[in-house]
Predict the structure of 30S ribosomal protein S1.
Amino acid sequence: MAQNTSMEEFEALLNESFEMDTPEEGSVVKGKVIAIEAGQAIIDVGYKMEGRVELKEFANPGEAPEISVGDEVEVYLRAAENARGEAVISREMARREEAWDRLEKAYADDQRVEGAIFGRVKGGFTVDLGGAVAFLPGSQVDVRPVRDAGPLMGLKQPFQILKMDRRRGNIVVSRRAILEESRAEQRAEVIGNLSEGQAVDGVVKNITEYGAFVDLGGVDGLLHVTDMAWRRVNHPSEILSIGETVKVQVIKINKETHRISLGMKQLQEDPWDLVGAKYPLSSVHKGRVTNITDYGAFVELEPGVEGLVHVSEMSWTKKNVHPGKIVSTSQEVDVMVLEIDGAKRRVSLGLKQTMRNPWEVFAETHPEGTQVEGEVKNITEFGLFIGLDGDIDGMVHLSDLSWDERGEDAIQNYRKGDMVSAVVSEVDVEKERISLSIKALGGDKFAEAVGGVKRGSVITVEVTAIEDGGIEVEYEGMKSFIRRSDLSRDRAEQRPERFSVGDKVDVRVTNVDSKTRRLGLSIKAREIAEEKEAVEQYGSSDSGASLGDILGAALKSGD
């Protein structure tokens, strides 16, 4: 009985010993390499258990395995015994467990971890973090897009853990965060050694439309296009190329944003310091058209000094024309200095001032009374515009078209493009206005015809037409009309039909109207005037003589 009790106790102690010393499956145990054969390491994990591990599990990505007989290693016990009676162990899984413990601590402490990129997957790369595999997104490889990641493969370098989930086995890392942090430190150091106004050398890294980025040794500064030269620069590539070393001046440093503004022209002499002396007012200089806008053209007088020729100062005659139709880019032109504003760095220039005022020239060469010829450029409700020498126009007012017709009727005889002759009647240089007259071409026929005629004169006219209301007569080519009531003193004789076309009739001038260019004529007035004269000469109204006697005496005297 006692013997049976002791056997049971021994068996219980033996089982308890096995339970305490035998390692638990799914844990990491220590073992010793006892042999290496057929690409495998045979490892004794104690407890009379041996297992096999592929040699590649002892190698880091891109490296040869480092393992020798006698080395002590940690392995992961997946199963205590397989079909061959060997322990199922894994070095890789042991490294992974060890790595996860280490990485979780580093992630909690926000520390960097070391790893190596060993593969490419969709959207990024795989990184070995000493046993644990992490995902490196393509956007987190570098501060700038990487075209070729070949040089980075297998290279041990630091990474920052962005996210990790042990249950799902996910780890996301960033190389860019490390570079940005390092770059920020480097920028801070470089910026700390710079000061505003300092001249430094830099290398052009990138060129844009608005300027160029210059590397000052770890930190970039912006060289704006307006600070490259005193002259106008249309595009930075005109004077800079990528990789070129340039000397620049530090204009401004923003300590908070670490932005640096650079300038090149600040290291050169400012041409504006001598503008006032070199370009006095009213002086004429040759320049080159650099830019054309809707409101004028910019002309470069010298590198760094530009002036604006406003559209109103471009031509004497072309008033509503785009500047591009008067000058062209790169054209050399003569300009006059009209105004200088040194504070605003502006020069106002004139193009037309270098040429004589065409109205002045016309006034000198075409005094009043000069006959000119030109093309009808435009027809308006108040007259004709005629093209003249010097690319200027003269105007013929409606009232200056014809002596005989109303202006509204006379203008119907003209068409655009007709060549016409006219006489210069007035030139107003200040108002840039030339008045012409077509009707004055043959002189003033009315004035010539009635030059010696005045009110009360008796003239002889020729009957040209018989009408119900009177008769039309002509005197020296000038037409007039005698009304029925003025045909005779005797009412019974006031009949137009008693006259015939071609009759010569003496009439008295009752009115000379230069505006309407008409003579007022009357046979009746002539007869009354003759009667009065006869009475005064041969008798009086109370002498007893009859009117017939007086007229008879007058007629005899006339014989």
Summary: The longest strand covers residues 27-37. Residues 343 and 391 are 39 Å apart (CA to CA).
